[in-house]
Amino acid sequence: MKTTPITQLIKELDEPAMYPRELSWLNFNARVLQEAQDPGVPLIQRVRYLGIFSNNLDEFFRVRVAEVRRWISLSTGQQKQQAKKLLEAIQFQVISLQEEFDATYSGILRELYKKGIFLINERQLEPHQLEFVQRFFNDIVLPELEPILLRDDQPIPILADESLYLAVDLETSQGLQYALLEVPTAALGRFIEVPKRGKKHSRVFIALDNIIRACLPQVFRGVFEINVSAAYCFKFSRDAELELDASINESLIEKMASSLKQRRRADAVRFVYDESMPLRLLDYLRKRFGFGKYDSLIAGGRYHNSKDFINFPNAGPKYLEFKPLRQIRIDRLEDDASLFANIRERDVFLYYPYHPFEYIVDVLKTAALDPDVLAIRICLYRVAKNSQVVDALINANNNGKTVQVVVELAARFDEQANITWAQRLTDAGIEVIFGIPGLKVHSKIFLIERLEGKELKYYSHVGTGNFNERTAQLYTDFSLLTFDQQIGRDVAQVFEFLKYNYRRPEYQKLLVSPHSSRPGLVAMIDREIKNARDGYRGLLFFKCNNLVDQELTQKLYEASQAGVEVRLIVRGMCQIKPGIKGLSENIRAISIVDRYLEHPRAYVFHNRGKPKYYIGSADLMTRNIDFRVEVLCPILDSDAQKVVQDVLDQQWYDNVKARILDADQRNRFRRQEKRAPTIRSQETIRRYLATGKLPRYPKSTMNQASKRRRKG
Question: d(Cα 708, Cα 536) in Å, to the nearest integer?
Fold first, then answer.
């Protein structure tokens, strides 16, 4: 594809008020790459950021680029031209990021060498190391290899999506031969330690693909007499969209399992290959795989599937990784008093990973044993591999409780795991619900029904993250446990809707997609607009993962034009363009990428000095607002409100890890002003939660009384 400067491409393909969401996503991944480039980040963590960047890019092609390709194939006229320009812009930006990635990788390798950690190739092996590699290959690697000889008269088998392959070029006594080898990283790992060099205090690793290269003739021993052999890495990214037919003869699990099999045969949307691959071999593969003109063929370096760097071992001192942080315990949840009594007394507000997720597990385990608990209802989207949450639910069922579990089978890339969990729960005798066709269930809720005296009481959970012990260590998320009975009745209504979806519930306090989230959010934004137009202060403070809904974007522009101050903390895609005169001069936006993945959604409305706080699962995306079951819950407890506000304020004034999201999304770091304190929000928030002490920064004005401004 012919490329033009990215800014010109954006001008050509996008309406002036909206930044293209796909390019905004790539800008987010560029922020991840900035972490790999940051010398202030521990070295091994920088290596792992390379892996995160690569893994993100794989998903981007499987989801976003696949969607653009479908757009091209299904559209005509001007829309088709726009889609082609977008694909061209994506290609341009991806190539630029890949070049930056390669330079970053080379720099990190040099720094690893200085620390005595060597990642070598097969040509750098010393004799004693080569002897080790050959033994390792024969004993461990060779039994895992299943080479595929390529012949024109035989079809190529379906290759695994996102696996690493070697295209093998053989000059044999019978002429030129081509073959394919899948590198068995899933079974053996990617990085193999070999004996060190001499007596130096060093650690030496070699990639599994280089071990295969070192021993390549042995793979074909007894088949060909090989004169010259070489191997070149490549990988596919396939369309990850699942299509479920409308058959009523199959169960949802059977249809989902069938669709997962079809995913393996889906069109390839990206082919990444070693740029040193001979042109004749590349052309042969391109023809055999049937790549079209809208497919992304991307030349790269010698190594691919860099997502394996996520698990790169720390072979040096401990300071090369992030120092483990002790989680903050909550005194009133540590004593011998009943957990239910604590929640009755006052809402419990948790913020992971600063607080331990085990508190949630404790609530479910306690409910499983409590003789007064009658029922537990929960929505599961992604759970840990060894889930204590699931164990607690099964134990509750074994103790005679009514247990109802909503399992979302269409949780992208976790579909097979969720099918397995659904079957395990069903086998245990638990009622499993699969939600509503066309509405993905993304809510982070559970409800405990407890008999107290002669009355049924509700204990509710609404959060921003999954019930997953592992990701609760890596993602920041809010969780609310409340005894508010109206919230409990609303949560019960959500579960009723999920079971009997022909009913239209009425919610008193919750905002629930697809019913009331959009009108509720719009109404509260409109209130701020009216307040500003009436001469009062208007302020919106939103934190989310993505902001790409057209109506809500336009509504925020309207708020800005009315004089409402709009503060946005957006981790990923953001189509809004802040700071444009006459459109968005009152909108400012930042993005924070740091040790933990920022995952909470929080929406705060000034409300003339009596702010309203909401947390929940819904991002500001059309799919979340209109095509999912999402829950946003008001925070009514004053202590919890203060925590939310203090957390948002610290992030807003972050001057270490905050990037400014301007109209061009250049990812500029916010500069620290002279004499201003250093605020790295993920560190200051932890200290704040442990001690109650806030860093010095301009005081929040969110809850100041809103006085009418003098007009004229």
Answer: 5
Domain extent listing, the chain: 155-190+208-303, 331-506, 512-691
Q: CA-to-CA distance for 351 and 485, rounded, in angstroms?
A: 23
Sign, CA dihedral 436-439-440-441, equals negative
Q: Quick one: which of 463, 460, 458 has its CA closest to 444? A: 463
Per CATH, the number for 155-190+208-303 is 3.30.1840.10
| DSSP element (H, E) containing 519 | helix 517-533
Alpha carbon distance 482, 226 (integer Å): 71
Largest Cα–Cα distance in the chain?
Answer: 92
Q: Could you give the CA distance from residue 579 to residue 559 in angstroms, rounded to a whole number?
A: 13
- If one looks up domain 331-506 in CATH, what number appears? 3.30.870.10
Active site residue 442: yes
Q: Give me the CATH topology for the region 512-691.
A: Endonuclease; Chain A (3.30.870)
- Which segments within 411-465 are labelled E, that is strand? 431-433, 440-441, 445-452, 455-463
pTM to 2 decimal places = 0.90
Asked whether residue 224 carries a pLDDT value surpassing 80, the answer given is no
Q: Do 605 and 635 meet the contact criterion of CB atoms below 8 Å apart?
A: no
- Write the pLDDT tens digit of every residue in 514-547: 999 999 999 999 999 999 999 999 999 999 999 9
pLDDT band at 199 (very low <50, low <70, confident <90, very high): low
SS3 230: strand
Four-point Cα dihedral 585, 586, 591, 592, nearest 10:
140
Contact 144, 212 (CB under 8 A): no
Catalytic residue (one of 355, 442, 515, 599): 442
